[in-house]
Amino acid sequence: MRARIAGMRRAFSSTALPAPEPAQRRDWQTLKSLIPYLWAYKGRVLFALFCLVAAKGANVSVPIIFKHVIDALTITREQAFIVVPAALLFAYGVLRFGTSLFTELREFIFARVTQEAVREITLRVFRHLHSLSLRFHLDRQTGGLTRDIERGTRSIGSLISYTLYSILPTLVEIGLVIGILLWNYDAVFGLVTLVTLVLYIAFTVKVTNWRTALRRRANELDSAANTRAIDSLINYETVKYFNNEEYEARRYDEQLKKWIHAQIINQQSLSLLNLGQAAIIAVGVTAMMWQAAIRVADGTMTIGDIVLVNAFMIQLYIPLNFLGVIYRELRQALADIERMFGLMHEGREVTDAPDAHELPPGPASVRFEQVGFSYDAKRPILHDVDFEIPAGHTVAVVGHSGSGKSTLARLLYRFYDVQQGGIRINGHDLRSLTQASLRRAIGIVPQDTVLFNDTLYYNIQYGRPDASHDEVVAAAEAAQLTEFIARLPDGYETRVGERGLKLSGGEKQRVAIARALLKNPAILIFDEATSALDSKTEKAIQAQLERAAEGRTALVIAHRLSTVMNADEIIVLDQGRITERGTHFALLARGDDYARMWALQQQEAEAT
């Protein structure tokens, strides 16, 4: 199916949606971008369109049959059953049923097209969001992002529904009715119908655009009143402290008055819209009836013709009564879909090179070669950082907050690309490797372990989703989790809560270690993995981290120097520059920054 949709996208490549500009609506581009997802099911689309035309053809034919029945019944009652053929009445019933049959068939056939298009677009947006850089996700507002996707996917169904089930059928019916009127009667009937419809639609669109601004203003005032009430109630104690109940009530009432005024204007504008629409319809129907009455009087038209013309006008204007609502919802749906499509056009900061290759499995050495990097060009983070972690060795990076330690881990994961120098694994520049194979070779135990709102088992297995039960249990044992899990009533099936909030800091860190071990990476990163823990828990976790690093290439980023004493090499980073390097005892012997940090931390430990 994805191949079919990809083919459709290539076929409609000229309709690709450019990155949206906030000040400019791109409704037609949005519609054209949606077409390939629907056209992938062109058989169903064409059959649905056939059903649409058939339904409207049957619907338009009903007044014609009714006209012949009325004409036949204008003779005496005794002759009525002779004059009105049974076939005519049967045709009337069949056409009535045919209208409903083809309408339901259209919806039955097209339902899969709509849902599959929504699924494919949503999945594409989801995958694209995961492919974007860390910078995008740090800047995003998660709530707003999910709302954009939610509204966009819902609006696709709404857009298709309004278009296929309301607007397109009405346009088809208008075309059929005007064609029949022009073919069978004087051109004046088709002209009056057309002019009436144009005036009706123009008036509805213009007034609806005006009402949309009024409604938006009313919604804003409603939100402001609601916000003021909630803010006051949240600060209940403060209100009581200062005896300001009446003051808060007056402030709330001020917002309510503004909202009520806006609501009254909004309702008055709706009445104006309804009256204007009714007036245009009344004038159009009156003109049609007047012309028909003249022709009945001179014998060129029958009573049945008057019934036919009147029925046509009623059939046309009933769906148009909802045009204002449909137009407003259609514009909103297009805006929501445009925002969602805009997410798919967010540029990827980090991408695989066209000739990128897989990182070969096995032991890995890591080398930072004169790396320079900045998140913002005005504020460089790393300057000429150069060091190597031989395969199977542990290198620790220490320094004050803001010195650039965690940036090293992000660069090694290739969340960002370096701006100067390069990073190599076994001699391969990271930019020449596929991101999937690079990240497959790296495991991390972060400072703040975030868990999924699922079971312990799920969160451990997340390190390698295809791992067997025995492998998950073995990883938990290696992370010293089994004793804790055994005490839980639900064991591995214990749910950890949102972001793992039901677990303590030490328990979450053990889960992070377990899933990193289950991943079985060649390279391990410990990014201040114990900095948020108390001293007792830190010592227990530290022993597990050291066991986890055995036989692997490890980069340890730490603030507490007691956690890196056993590293093969310790690098001191200060304002993005390497100022010292060596073993723990060698650095102490030098008596520089590392020794001063060690002495200070020892004093703090003794004081507590």
Oligomeric composition of the shown chains: single chain
**Contiguous helical run count:** 21
- N- to C-terminal separation? 63 Å
Strand fraction: 5-15%
Main sheet: strand order: 6-7-8-3-9-10
> Overall pLDDT, averaged?
78
CATH topology of the largest domain: Rossmann fold
The shape is elongated
Number of structural domains: 3
Query: How would you characterize the largest beta sheet?
Result: 6 strands, mixed
Label the CATH architecture of the largest domain.
Answer: 3-Layer(aba) Sandwich
Rg computed from alpha carbons, rounded to a whole number of angstroms: 36 Å
**For the record, what CATH class of the largest domain applies?**
Alpha Beta
Helix content: 55-70%
The fourth-level CATH homologous superfamily of the largest domain is P-loop containing nucleotide triphosphate hydrolases
